[in-house]
Amino acid sequence: MGPMLTLTDAAAARVKKLMAAAPEDDEILGLRVGVKSRGCSGLSYFVEYAKERKKLEDVIEDKGVRIFIDPTAVMFLLGSEMDYQEDKLQSGFVFRNPNETGRCGCGESFTVGDQGQPSAQQPQSAG
């Protein structure tokens, strides 16, 4: 079995920048990545500051940053790559997820399982 989640250099650089900008009075341990039920396809990624480690939460330390994987998201994120992309219209973390089988037209949500055809693994924004 491969790694649960890998980070590109761009993603790691953005995490470092976010950690440096976090309020000093908050004890931020890293960033948490997970999925929520949301959008037309059913699931959407989320990224938030992690102030504590949740019970059963996996922690990935890579490229000098710490990413906490929400325990309910493990089966959806296994083997994914987290990237950070920026262009003239938008910026944000994007995920290349081999578990995705479908995605809504706007790109805000995705599905896993047998409901759709295998995707071309286009990046999915966290939003």
Topology:
Blueprint: E1 5-7, H1 9-21, E2 30-37, E3 43-50, E4 58-62, E5 65-69, H2 74-77, E6 80-86, E7 91-96, E8 100-103, E9 110-112, E10 124-125
Question: How would you characterize the overall build of this protein?
Answer:
This protein has 127 residues and is mainly beta. The chain has one domain: HesB-like domain (Hypothetical Protein Aq_1857, Chain: A). It contains two helices and ten strands. The chain has helices at 9-21, 74-77, and strands at residues 5-7, 30-37, 43-50, 58-62, 65-69, 80-86, 91-96, 100-103, 110-112, 124-125. Strand 8 (100-103) and strand 9 form a beta hairpin. The longest helix has 13 residues, at 9-21. The radius of gyration is 14 Å and the shape is globular.
Count of runs of 4 or more consecutive helical residues: 2
Silhouette: globular
Structural class of the helices, strands and pairings?
mainly beta
Q: Which H/E pattern describes the elements?
A: EHEEEEHEEEEE
- How many domains make up the coordinates? 1
Residue stretches low in confidence (pLDDT < 50, at least 5 long) are 115-122
Give the % helix: 10-25%
**Could you give the count of β-strands?**
10
Backbone CA Rg: 14 Å
Strand content: 35-45%
N-to-C CA distance: 28 Å
Major sheet summary line: 4 strands, mixed
CATH architecture, please?
Sandwich
Task: Name the CATH superfamily classification.
Answer: HesB-like domain
The CATH first-level class comes to Mainly Beta
Strand order within the widest beta sheet: 1-6-7-10
Mean of the pLDDT scores? 83
The CATH topology label is: Hypothetical Protein Aq_1857, Chain: A
